[in-house]
Amino acid sequence: MAAVLAVRQALHGSGSPLRVAGTAVIALIWLAFLGVAHVRMRQLATARPPALAPRVALGAVLCTVALALFAMTVIF
Q: Measured in whole angstroms, how far is the alpha carbon of residue 74 from the centre of its chain?
């Protein structure tokens, strides 16, 4: 959701380089989160899914926190 809000604001706002860069960062974080989620969904589709690796869990947590922080930045 933060990525959508950032893109909307960048397109309808001034379009300053800082806003465009922020939008790009948010989009990259969102894509990273989608990648982590996709890998985990494929793992869960097997008969005996492996345990969630700590590195993958940390990646998902960091993406979630970063998106929440960017969402607060976009809103305020």
A: 14
Q: Mapping DSSP to helix (H, G, I), strand (E, B) and coil, where does residue 16 land?
A: coil
pLDDT range class, residue 29, cuts 50, 70, 90: confident
Q: Any idea of the CA torsion for 23, 1, 75, 6, to the nearest 10 degrees?
A: 20
Tokens of 58: 């940390």
What is each CA distance from 55 to 1, 6, 36, 58, 65, in whole angstroms?
24, 28, 10, 5, 15
The rounded distance, in Å, linking the Cα atoms of 19 and 74 is 10
